[in-house]
Amino acid sequence: MDKRAFPGSAVIICIALLAIVARAQDEQWLRYHSAREVRLVGFSSNSRNLEVITEKPDGVALPEFKPALNSSNGSDEPVFAKWPTPMVQNGYLWIALHRTHNNGPHDKLYIDSNGDGSLNNETAFSAYRTTQNYTYFGPVKVVFQIEDGPVTYHLNFQFYGSADSSRKRLYASSGGWYEGDVAVNGAKKHCVLFDYNANGTFNDKALDPDESDRIRIGRAGSQDTRFVGNYLDVDGKYFIPEIARDGACIKLAEAKDVKFGKVRLPESVTELSAGGENGLFTVKPENKVAPLPVGKYRIVAWTIERKDDKETSWKLQASRPEKETDFEINAEIETALSVGEPIVSSLNSRQRNGTHYFDQSLKGRNGERITFTRNGARPQAPKLNIKNKDGTYDRTYSFSYG
Q1: Is 206 found in the same domain as 169?
Q2: Do 165 and 226 fall within a single domain?
Q3: What is the C-alpha to C-alpha distance for residues 268 and 117, in angstroms, rounded to an integer?
Q4: Does 35 score more than 70 pLDDT?
Q5: 318: how many CB neighbours lie within 10 A of its CB?
Q6: Of 60, 204, 226, 274, which one has the fewest beta carbons inside 10 Å?
Q7: CA 30 to CA 246: how far, in whole Å?
Q8: Both 164 and 54 in a single domain?
Q9: Contact at 8 Å (CB) between 399 and 360?
Q10: Is 307 domain-assigned?
Q11: Which comes out higher in pLDDT, residue 356 or 309?
């Protein structure tokens, strides 16, 4: 054998190894966590309302349900639901609930935790909290079998349905998330991934905010939550995030040649948040114009800030529009948005058992919820003056924040 071939082969092997190492370094791994109530650790989740049925599912082996003692009206019969997830082959996992006591809702939950289509080999989860009409379960563990091996995921459930209630509801929300330190453009940042739409994956991006997962990249403990999308703005620089479907790792590549368009806002609007498949962006217009990457968006929130003649700072924040607010950004034409003032103040009244109740609310032109602050704090609640026609009744009442 010609030994002169070895040096060249060694170079090729070294280059191949360096390429493998470089690719491995791009993948930044995160640690998985779970919690019973994720809101207590700084997350919010879009709970899925699962259809509850009483018919036993065909072809599903069921556990032996022991009836509640002294039950005579059949209310202890089990109920069933499907939790939809693309992480299993048939697209869902079966759930069963049943009641082991005579009062209150169902307090035992079974889930097809290994995705084998059967419930008779599962151990029941007991409710950790029970009220007259509600039971709470979690975190409930399931295991997905994927190409790289088993992946653990957790769910939290809230079940409604008293013993004598024919209407029953089951809500599922994510009970797990990933987080850890990552390198972004040479700087250490803390990254958190959360399955907001509670379907078992962590890389969903959508125009509908309820169907988009969430990401945070910044300092540890930051509440700056973005939508998972095509782009991510970190310290004023755009990156393209590549998130593993199971959430275990993330890659961040600098976004080059991003195409931008312009959005035109009313003069009074000082900040706009808009989201879509590109992600979530908060922009502050200059001369009523702000840049956004080309694509489709939905208005998430907007802000008006100004000072009165006494230099008092007032801040009006609008969020959660009730009307459709979708818009599109292209590179050639400015897109003008109808947001901001006027703000509508409404007074609603109702009567019950001889008592009158009044509610005052503020809404934007698209049905946005409005919050006010004065020098960073809530101003005093408004007052209501009630006076009859002849003036014999004239009283002023103060509203309170509830």
Answers
A1: no
A2: no
A3: 57
A4: yes
A5: 26
A6: 60
A7: 11
A8: yes
A9: yes
A10: yes
A11: 309
Secondary structure (DSSP) of 294-328: SEEEEEEEEEEEEE-TT--EEEEEEE--SS--EEE
Last residue of a domain, one of 174, 190, 221: 174
Please give the DSSP secondary-structure letter assigned to residue 56.
Answer: P
Nearest partner of 138 among 109, 101, 98, 168, judged by Cα: 109
- Which amino acid type is present at position 29? W
- Phi, psi at residue 207, to the nearest 5°? -70, -35
- Shared-domain flag, residues 199 and 155: no
The two three-digit tokens of residue 28, written as one number: 């930044």
283: helix, strand or coil: strand
Helical (H) or strand (E) element with 86: none
Nearest to 340 by CA among 357, 323, 361, 317: 317
Residue 266's SS3 state is coil
Residue with tokens 């998972």: 228
Confidence of residue 42 (pLDDT cuts 50, 70, 90): confident
DSSP bridge partners of 261: 292
At residue 138, the pLDDT reads: 94
Residue 34's CB: how many other CB atoms inside 10 A? 18
Final residue before a domain boundary, out of 146, 174, 202: 174
Q: How many domains does the chain have?
A: 3
Instruction: Pick 357 or 332 by higher pLDDT.
Output: 332
Which residues touch 344 (CB under 8 Å, ≥6 apart)? 362, 363, 364, 365
Check whether residue 165 and residue 64 sit in a common domain.
Answer: yes
Confidence of residue 357 (pLDDT cuts 50, 70, 90): confident
Other beta carbons within 10 Å of 51? 9
Q: What is the domain extent for residue 116?
A: 46-174
DSSP state of 53: B
CA distance 325 to 317: 16
- Tell which residue, 191, 250, 180, has the closest CA to residue 222: 191
How long, in residues, is the chain? 402
